[in-house]
Structures are given as C-alpha cells and as structure tokens.
Amino acid sequence: MPERLRPNRKRFIGESVTRLEDGPLVTGRARFIADLNFPHQLHARIVRSAYACGQILSIDVREALAVDGVVAVWTAADMANVPNIPFRATAIQGLGPYTQPPLARDRVRYVGEPVAVVIAEDAYVAEDAAELVIIEIDPADPYLDAFGAPPEFAPGHSCEPVVINKGYGDVDGAFADAHRVIELDLSIGRHSAIPMETRGLIARYDEARDVLELHGAAKRPHWNRDQLADLFKLSPSRVELYENHVGGGFGVRGELYPEDLIVCFATLKLKRSIKWIEDRREHLMAANQSREQRHLVRAAIDAEGRIGAIDEILYHDQGAYVRTHGARVADMTIGLLLGPYRVPAYRARAHYRLTNKTPAATYRAPGRFEGSFVRERLIEAIANDLRRDPIDIRRLNFIAPEEMPYERGLSALETEVVLDSGDYDGLLGKALAFADWDSLRAKAAERRSAGELVGIGFGMFVEKSGLGPAEMVDMTVETDGSVTIVTGAASLGQGMETVIAQICADTIGTDYRRIRVLHGDTNRIPYGFGAHASRVTVMTGEATRRAAVIIRAKALDLAAEILGVDAAKLDIIDGVVLSLEGAGETLDLGEIARHLGPTSPLRKDREPGLSTVAWYHSKHMNYPYGVHIAQVRVDMETGQVAVEDYAVAYDVGRAINPALVEAQIVGGLAQGIGGALFEEFLYDDNGQPLSVTFADYRMVTASEMPPVKVLILEDAPSPLNPLGIKGAGEGGVNAAGAAIASAIDDALQHPGFVRQLPVTPQYIRRRLAETRALDV
Amino acid sequence: MKAAPFTLHKPGTLEEAVALLAEYGEDGGLVIAGGQSLTPMMALRVAYPPHLVDINAIEKLSQLTVGDGFLSIGATVRHAQFHRHFVEAGTLGRLLSSVVHHIAHYPIRQRGTFCGSLAHADPSSEWCLVAATLGAELRLTSTSGDRLVQINDFLDGAMSTTREPSEILTEARLPLLAENTRFGFYEFNRRAGDFALGMALVAYDLEGGKIRNARIGVGGIEEKARRLAAVEAALEGKTPDSEAFAAAAAATVADVDAMEDPTTSAQYRRDLSGVVVRRALEIAQTATRF
C-alpha cells in the first residue's frame, strides 16, 4: 500500500516517544515490593554466616525464640524437605552436588550465607532477634583465589566441578607456524549489579483458593513459578508469581535465591503472608556477584598481524555455590570471546571453580565485559608487537559483511553462535568519524606534550541479544478501542511497555497511548521467558508485531463487510477504519470489537473477540555490535583516572525508540565505568567481604560520569525478524573496560600497561613502580 | 539495617544533658548531634549505644561567634554553616569555607556538625585536620564543670579520643588567622564526597617574601590528623617556590607513619602524603595571587 495514500498515518516505530510507564514513577505513585503489604503479614530476617568457610557445630535459637513477637526461628533441620535451589537447563552435567540449600547444611561456604531465619510480627523485632541466634562455627581456611589449585568441595567433589572446552581448527599447527606469539595474563575484578531497589519478596498462601502467591517476582516469573511448584510439590496452577514496579535488575534480580525458598516455605507452613525486604548490606553480600575471572590468552599471528589462532585458558571464580545459571557465564565467556574477528583456529578451556565468596552469576553483558577486555587487550598487544596501528589490526581481522551469516563453530547460551549480520568495518569508520578520532588523538598528543597524561582508547565489541526460545503475546482490542497486550516477559524498568506499545500501535494503526501492556502476572498468561539477555524487544516485540498483523486483518475483514468496501481499500488510522478513497463511513476499533462480541449477529461464524495469541520462536540469537571510545586523564602522582569524554556507536538493527536505546547505553556505561575503575567486591584473607556499604563499594556518581555521545546505527538489521531488531540492553557496558584500559595505556604512552580491572589508583601506582623497576 | 533498641533523651538544657550523660555515659550512652556518622553505624549494628543524649534542642550550643582572637564553634554548629565565608572570622572564615565542600555531600553537611566530626575522630575527617593544624582548643563539659583540652591531647587515634564518657564536647575554638596568612587545602579521594585517602592543610604567614610560622598538617594518612613539625621546619624562612615545596613533600614522606588497610598499602599513602602537601602548598601560593 503506497505511503502517500495514508497521509495521516502516524508512525511509532523509530520514534523517541515518551515513556508510557513514567506517570506513577515520577509522581511517587509506583508500587515497589516494599510498598506492598498484606493483612496479618509476618516478617522474615535472615541470619547469615559470619565465616567464609567452616563446619557448623551448633545453632542455638532459644534466646531468639523467646523474644516477644517472634513466631519461628528455623535452621536447615527445619527445612530438610526443601530441595536445593535448581539451575536452568544446561548442557553441562555434574553440577547438582554444588547447588545451594536454602539454609546452610552442616557447612558454611561464604560470609552472608543464610544459616537461619527468624519470622516475627515486626521487621524490627525480627532483626533484633536475629542477632540472638548463636551460631557456633569451626572455621576452616577459605579458598579465595580461583587461580590456585582447587581443594575438595565435599568428599569426592572438587571445587572445580567442570572444565569447559570449546574450539575448532588446528591450534597447535597455527602456533607452530606463527610469525609471532602474543601472550597476556589479564584479570577482571568481582563486581555486580547494584539496583537502586534491593530485592524483596512477599509470599502469601491463599487458603481460600489453595494457591501459593509470590510477590516481588522479576526477570523470569514463569520459570520460577514452575520451579517453585516442583520444589514444593504443587501443581503449577497453584503457584502464582506477581511483579511489582522494579527498580532495576541488570541480571541479579528475579533469580531464585535462598530467600525465595525460605519465604515460600514459611507461608506454606505458617499460613500467613511473609515479607522479606533485603537491606543494602545484605544485597552487597547475598545477591549474585559477577565478573571475577583471570585469562591466560595467547594469539598466533602472521607478519601482518593476521590472527592464526587463539588459545585461551579461563579461571572463573564462581563463588561458593552453583546458582540458577549453572556454568553459563564461564561457558559464554569463551563461546563469545572472539567478537568481530576472524579466528581460523581456537581452543578455550574454562576452569569453573567454586571459592568461598558470594556465589556469582550474570550481570549485564555477562562474559562479554570480561571477554571484550581480554580480546581488545590482545588486539592492541598484537599491534604493539608489530608497531602497527591497532585500528588497522582490527580491520585486517574483521569478518566481512559478505561472510554473514557467519557460523562461529562455537556455542553460547545453549545455542550455536551464528553472527546474523554486521558491517564491522563500516561501523568502525562511522564511529571514528562520529567521535572525531583523529582530532581527539591530536589534541591528546598536544596535551601530553604540555605535560598532561591524556589518552584516547578504543574498544570494539559484538553483543548478543534476542535469546529464544520463544515468546507469546495475547492481544485484545477492548470495546473502547484500546488494546491490551499480555506478555510473559517482565519489566525491570527499561521501558518495555512503551516499546511493545509502539510496535503494536504502528502495526495496527492506532496511537501507542491506547495500548496497555500487562506483564508480570503468571496467572494471566501461560508462558513467558522473561526479561534478560537483551531479548524483550526482539522476542516480545516480534510476537507483538505478529499479533498486531492478525488483529489488523481481523478488523479490516469485518469492517469491509459492514462498510461494504473491499478490505484492500481500507486503512486504520489512529484507531479508525476508513476508506483509502477518503469518502464514506468509518468504524473505530472499539466498534469492531463490539461487533465481534460473542453475541453479536454481525460476527457470523468468525471467532469471538477482536483478539489473538501470537508466538515467535527463535533458535538463534542475533548480534548487535559497536565501538566504545574513551578519553581519560591520569594523575600519575595519585594514580587517579578521570574519564573526560566518551562516545559509543552501536548498531541495533532497528531502534524502536532511539531515546530509550540511548538511555540503555548511557546507563550501561555508568556500570561499565564502575567496573573499569571503581567497583569491586574485595575480600580479606579470611574471606571477610570488605565491600558491604556504599562507602566501600564505589559506584559511579554523576560527578564521575563523562559527557557521552551516542551514535545509533541501523545498518545491519537482523535477518532473523522482519523488523530487523537487535537488543540494546548491554552494549553500553560491554567494551567500557576495554576502551578505558586502552585509553590509560595511551595516556601513559605505555602499551599493555593495564592488565587488570578495575584500574584503581593503588593499582596504577603499583604498576608504575613495577614498570619503572623493569626499566632500570 | 535498623538500629538495635535504644533510649533517646532530648534534654533542653546543658545541665540536663550532662546529668544524663553522667548517668548513662559509663554504660555506653552517647551524645548525638548531627548523627551523620553515628546513625549509619547504629543501623549497621557496629555501634550499640543503649542511650542517646540528643543535644540539638540546647540553644546555647548552636552558637558560632568570634571571640578574642578565636572563633568559637558550638556543639551543634552544622558543616553547612561554613558554606559561605563567615566574614567576621576573616582569613579563618575563608579557610573553613574552602574546606567544607570536601566534606561528604550537601545533605550530610546540612546536618553533620563540626564538633561531632572531632568527637568521632575519623582519620579522614577534614575538621580534625583543620583543628590539628591550626591548634584548636576544646571545651569538654560534664557535671563536674568544664575542662579545656588541646586538640593534640584530644585525638587519640583512629575513632578514638580522650573524652570521658560523661563529657560533652561543647565547644571548639580555632585561633583566628592573620591577614597575611596564606592557606591551601588539598584532598584526594576516589569520588566526590568520599572519605579522603589523603589530604593536607597548610597555612603560613608571608613576611618579606618568606614563609614564617608554617602550619602543615596531613589527614587520612596516619591514624589521626597531625601537624608535621619536621616539614614546618623545612619550610621556615624559605621562599614559597617549587624547590621549597618539593623539599616539603620529601620531608613529609620521610616523616609520616602511614596507615595501611586491605585496599591501600602504607607505601601508597606515604607517597600520597608528599603529593597532597605539595599541592596544598601550591594552592596556598596561587590562591593569594589576586
């Protein structure tokens, strides 16, 4: 249908429309889990281990139980029938013995591990009584450095449950024939997501309906429902999960944790609602941590800098238990390590090791923040070795657009890695022009010659998004003409309601403000695969488009009959069906919905309701890609690094809402800069966490954030969905460590200076002393 | 993160306050004024005072006045009262207003107090450094009356003072500075508002182009803020130039007994001590060139 025939058709895809969800959020009317209360609810307080490793000798709960208002104090013995926390489907076998019990059984394995729970009439009473639980522990030496030989986890089980191997090609041959071999030893510090809202849950057993409700769900409500049903031996139809407003997730919120099992157990046992709100100190020792890895990586190169092979050994510090992600982060680190480069032969071994720290799992761009740091350090080391410009080395090794789709011969997230589309060289060129690369470099050089230590850094990355396997939406046009979409995906505050509404409105031909997107209620929709892995806009978005196409066809079909006009000569503009010729009667969507009502004679034998369910299945992820460019200034005397300026270019295939894409990138970058320079969970030699307040766990504030320029590109739409969408959630974090490390090297005019993240002032001073000692 | 149970007392007069402290101080009762350090410690259950004596309602403790040669800072005078240059305090007023912005964040400065910072005795406290460098005199009040203590006899180490449990730090007196006194303050921290990893305050009188009466202090480096006599001696009579400053920095590094913690080595802090002293001297030199 030619565009000129519908002058009034308003487009929503590609427009930076304002967010639908902001009203309650900005007027203080939102409802977060802590805002929610039920009559006669009780409060849970977790008693946590003060030791990183040791045998539990005794737990004395008598004093706590005697406190007025305390209803119950339980230990592992009281929850013996509740199984350990399960992990999601993974190809990796043998992880079962390493899962976490809801309350520590016999041994404690990290500081902060739940050992007992106090249930009381009041949150204050619960916290006071929790201090009276006396846990006697015989401490043992903790295992804290995953690079060291793994001790025994339990009799017959090593702290290294698995070594993951991936690769292809003749690696040894390539190294034997190499012009040069470049070798690096790189580390990434332990850090994680710190959402503004801590975790929280209310479990409620509804005796009237014989249903277990869990409020405070996020990320993967349906999977969690099924698992809880399984753990507590209930039919899934008797378990309902509800989402509230969510103040950030970034990977850590919405997984099944010990607390989820504890509150569900408690409500089933006590038949009263149980509320648990995590405090900040708890979050910093109980929520999943991430990123801690050491990489020994080698590249075989030819005389021009072409990569012949990469040989990688990863030591992945998983912390104390295998949690819901299994070994996924270690697995995808090596599965996605190669980024945009052609690597003819590859061998990777991931040593997945359990230490006496808080368990680890995914955090925004899991495995890729780490992998991009390693890969881009390696590229720059190759360039330095050959005295070539690292940009040229990148170009030399890029996979070309005409090679797409490109089968890596590797897997990640249980799918084969097939790069779907991308023009890496094209994006690199545009990014350099956008950031004014040559002039940035020239100005930095000028300032260096005046005595300042200023440098420009670069990081190239390939993200992944749109993880399947499937998503469905249930779409209904209401009799008032508004559209209701029910999805099993979740919202973590990222703006998914707006984006889904835009796709629906654009496809049907109505206003996006007439669309209501309902999510986070397992009772309303049978299936959902959640909000993670930059998948919602791709998966729910495409399911929405499909449903909207059906709705539009249904509406036009009935309207054609009523109006007596050929459906092909009708359009829907702003929710009204009208003739393309401009004359004649019109029908709005609400009227059509009424005419399709079950008792409407006009419906004839059509299915009742202007509604449909649509599915989208996807076997493969898609792969957005981009560039980070950082300008930093180093204070040699203090070791402080200031990020002065920043640019990100990102090809997302199709930006449904460019303003939201940009917000994703800038927000992600704040976390990326945190991981590159500031944030780190540190432990002392006894395994005591040193970063349990915001004074010690340093997040980036507005004062540390540089100005950020964002270039959103749509040059390589994904061939895997008709709109060409790729996810935008993780590109802002991905190459921040890589680009900042590169910029610090440049500022100090010392290639290869940065070998670990975060780059703290203390690290810079130590490395300076080290490199000076080498110079002498 | 909720405080353990405690009893809050809100006396209206100093007499009542010291009586309460006489009764509860020995058992761990504490004075609360701004509460910007104490209440987080209570919420984290690091501090468990069974009684808190809230002195905010005691009118006469809120006074900020200039006396004969000194500035008198009452126990409930907030950091924020130094946001603007306190004109009557002359050069000292300018010094305080240049330091205050380094203390935590704006909301905290609205509530936290000068005397509370001294009583808390965090090694990274800006006010402890100011008091130690300029030679503050403190008034401690109890049911037995007042006792005047020099700051150096008051600060006893990290988070430790010689205050008796029954005493309230009711007033801090800072000597006014001469018109020709130059000063510079430099603080290094990871993020805006963070605790200092190291900081220095310098003040000296410029007479005939030479440094006289140098007062050089460092904070965040040792267990307590301290004047560095060796550095002052190295500067006395010198022309304030880069050579003198470099010598002062070297003297600082040689003189300090730097703390270490799991994230920061003594070596790092020792190196930093010289840097902050030199930068504070440079600020003192340039800030007075109008």
Question: What topology does this entry show?
Answer:
The complex is a heterodimer of chains A (776) and B (290).
Chain A: H1 22-26, E1 42-48, E2 54-60, H2 62-65, E3 70-75, E4 107-108, E5 114-120, H3 123-130, E6 134-139, E7 152-154, E8 157-158, E9 162-168, H4 171-176, E10 180-188, E11 200-206, E12 211-217, H5 221-231, E13 239-243, H6 258-270, E14 274-277, H7 280-286, E15 293-301, E16 307-319, H8 328-335, E17 345-354, H9 368-386, H10 390-397, E18 406-412, E19 415-419, H11 424-435, H12 437-449, E20 454-462, E21 470-477, E22 483-487, H13 496-508, E23 515-518, H14 536-563, E24 570-573, E25 576-579, E26 587-588, H15 589-595, E27 611-617, E28 625-635, E29 640-651, H16 658-678, E30 708-713, H17 731-734, H18 736-748, E31 756-757, H19 761-775
Parallel strand pairs in A: 1-14, 10-31, 12-13, 16-17, 22-23, 29-30
Antiparallel strand pairs in A: 1-5, 2-4, 2-6, 3-5, 7-8, 9-17, 10-15, 11-12, 11-14, 15-16, 18-19, 20-28, 21-22, 21-27, 24-25, 25-26, 28-29
Chain B: E1 7-9, H1 14-24, E2 30-32, H2 38-43, E3 51-54, E4 64-66, E5 70-74, H3 90-100, H4 106-111, H5 114-120, H6 126-134, E6 137-142, E7 145-150, H7 151-154, E8 155-157, E9 160-161, E10 168-175, E11 181-188, E12 198-207, E13 210-219, E14 226-227, H8 229-235, H9 242-255, H10 266-287
Parallel strand pairs in B: 1-3, 2-3
Antiparallel strand pairs in B: 4-5, 5-10, 6-7, 6-10, 8-9, 11-12, 12-13, 13-14
Describe the model.
The complex is a heterodimer of chains A (776) and B (290). With 776 residues, chain A is an alpha+beta fold. Among the domains of chain A are: 3-29 and 467-617, 2-Layer Sandwich (Aldehyde Oxidoreductase, domain 4), CATH 3.30.365; 420-466 and 621-776, Aldehyde Oxidoreductase, domain 4 (2-Layer Sandwich). In chain A, the strands form eight sheets. Chain A has a seven-stranded mixed β-sheet with strand order 3-5-1-14-11-12-13, with helices on both faces. With 290 residues, chain B is an alpha+beta fold. Chain B has ten helices and 14 strands. In chain B, the strands form four sheets. In chain B, strands 4-5-10-6-7 form a five-stranded antiparallel β-sheet. Chain B has a four-stranded antiparallel β-sheet with strand order 11-12-13-14, sandwiched between helices. A three-stranded parallel β-sheet of chain B has the order 1-3-2, with helices on one face. In chain B, helix 8 (229-235) runs antiparallel to helix 9. Chain B is globular and about 55 Å long. Chain B starts with 6 loop residues before the first strand and ends with a helix. The chains are: A alpha+beta (776), B alpha+beta (290). Chain A binds chain B through residues 123-124, 127-128, 131, 279-281, 637-640, 678, 682, 684, 690, 693, 695, 698, 700-701, 703-704, 760-762, 765-766, and chain B through 1-2, 4-5, 40, 44-45, 188, 190-195, 197, 262-265, 268, 271-272, 275.
